[in-house]
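Dear colleague,

Thank you for sharing your sequence with our group. We've completed the structure prediction you requested, and as agreed, I am returning the results in plain text so they can be pasted directly into your records. Please verify that the sequence below matches your submission; if there's any discrepancy, let me know and we will rerun it promptly.
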Amino acid sequence: MADFRPDLVEDAVRRLGETRAGMREANKRWQAMLRAPGSPGGGRRYGAVLGPPEAVVARRIGDLACSARQWALPLWPGLRFEVLAGPAEAGAPVLNAWLVRAPDTPPPVLRTLDDLGPWSCVVADLGAAFPPAVPREGSAPNRFRLDFTAPDARGRPRALTADFTWGLLQEVRPIDGPAPTAAD
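Please find the predicted structure tokens below.
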């Protein structure tokens, strides 16, 4: 997320009581685990790092039986980190991993472009607020993009693209253009 919002990441690091060196060390351990022979595969690797999930929910995607494991994270109490794996076995391949709205947390009120600040919503929140949102391939793994239409502050409809990292909104801009400004 730091390549989109370094200022928010720095603030989050401070709120978590962590340091840059601690973040680098955590990433180093994660990368080593991913590449180590015999390291847990599929959804089990997330459990090895995050501990037991708070919830495991059975999901079906068409004919495919999946399981969604969810973990609470201190930085975002209203969200859960969800790992969707299928078929519903612990070592099954991960189909998706991202932040989702916690079941007991209402989504934010999203009415206009001005409501879409960085880290203000997850993919499902934006999709529900501005249908039909069209999913697009993100620029890297664990990045997502939605094309949608939302009104600006004056009520004019705008064709927009939203970029998400790990399911959390990073930026909104006109389709194939720079980020909108207050003067637009």
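Summary note from our side: The chain is about 20% helix and 35% strand.

Kind regards,
the structure core
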